Amino acid sequence: MFKGFIRRMRIPPTNSFRADESYFEKLLRYIPGDIVAGWVALNGVIVGEAGNSPILQWIVFGALLILSPLYMCYMKTDPPGISLHKAFPCLVAALAFAVWVFALGGPFAAQWPTLYKPVFGSVLLILTTLIIPVLEKIFYDTTPPAQ
Question: Cα separations (Å) of 136 from 46, 52, 56, 143?
């Protein structure tokens, strides 16, 4: 039962991948730049007007975290919509957004100012950036069968 489900989930979305894509193109495909830009703008408003309110930052972070996979499914893949084939890009979009917010500080730095260190966010961001295309290759198993 689960083998068929997993097999269908591991089929890449149609018209979303090219064999000649560079590492940079793959990376840009999975990082929800529009959502990250929305976070930067909204966080600037929150910090400027609400006095760095961690509660409001967490609410906005949660809303954009929920929005990021939906945005990926409907705006960044073809055909638009939710399907089993888009599980990997949608989950990676949410993960990438969370890592970007952590790297920028956001509610993590506001909630735990003594524990949060920017170096942790920088390291996590670099590691995530390097790991995403590797996970894609493993998930979709795009290597041709041995002859």
Answer: 35, 36, 34, 11
Segments making up each domain of the chain, as ranges: 24-137
Biggest alpha carbon distance in the chain?
Answer: 63
Burial of 26 from C-beta contacts in 10 A (0-12 / 13-18 / 19+): middle
The conformation of residue 144, written as its DSSP 8-state character, comes to: P
Return the ∠ at Cα 39 (arms to 13 and 86), rounded to 5°. Answer: 10
Residue with tokens 């993590």: 108
pLDDT digits (tens, 9 = 90+) for 39-83: 999 999 988 886 778 899 999 999 999 999 998 888 877 777 777
